[in-house]
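Morning!

As promised:
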Amino acid sequence: MPHTYLISGTSRGLGLGLVRYLLSSSKQTKVIAGVRNPSSAIDLQSLVDDFGNERLHLLKLDVENAVENALADLESSGFLGDGGLDTLIANAGISNALPPPSETTPELVQANLNVNLYGVMNLVTSSLPLLRKGQAKQIFAVSSTVGSLGGLFSENSLYTAYCMSKTILNMYMRKLSVELKEEGFTVVMYSPGFVKTDLTGGYGDMDVEQAVKLGVENVIRKVTKADNGKFLDVDGSVAPW
Ligand SMILES: NC(=O)c1ccc[n+]([C@@H]2O[C@H](COP(=O)([O-])OP(=O)(O)OC[C@H]3O[C@@H](n4cnc5c(N)ncnc54)[C@H](OP(=O)(O)O)[C@@H]3O)[C@@H](O)[C@H]2O)c1
């Protein structure tokens, strides 16, 4: 039985890597790749050539704007047939706020929240009807251990607004896991590791290929309903809040 994923932020970085790995590692996988500018997404277009448009559908999706319309476009595209979505991966994110707390402005916090929190909320709300129609009923948010207030709290005082956005995201997702539990959903936040992408300026412990393989095999394809509400690290272990 095919398993259908909707992933946001797939033009580059981890999102693009997830699309490529999910499609290449299982013939049963179908992916809707959310992307702000499909016409300039050369790497995604070549994945459509490789895997075929019956397995990969590019969906114009900006998580800050008109997300409901984008999901309506998906429904009317015919890509889903009579089925729904199995798994949502809310991956799109930004980190454009370097300053420490004393120089962090409300505007910087707002800019990070617009994508990293409100973008996820928009996506969840608009996708829920299709996720309810699907079999797996899974929602993942790509969070970060930089949002940890406890065991993995970072003593680095920079990127305050970004860290704050991930802490609040985790609270939203955890509350969501409580609400959707009775319907059989699995709602999980996971940290993808420190990965060499544009977001980190190319710094990291892993390249995208390594990170997405670990994330998919240890988290995305491994979780069960018993993991609902957990914050997981890329090795599958439970991360501290
Ligand atoms: N890299 C790491 O070490 C690391 C660590 C922890 C967590 N994360 C998280 O992992 C996720 C992916 O990060 P990444 O490292 O792959 O970053 P990236 O290479 O900078 O890619 C970010 C992606 O998000 C998209 N995006 C940004 N704003 C968007 C919006 N409003 N609507 C839709 N898409 C939007 C970008 O699209 P455009 O090309 O159109 O801008 C791009 O595809 C983020 O949530 C990030 O916080 C990353």
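The pocket of NAP is lined by residues 8-15, 36-37, 61-64, 91-94, 115, 119, 142, 144, 191-192, 194-195, 197-200, 204 (CB under 6 Å).

Hope this helps with the figure draft.
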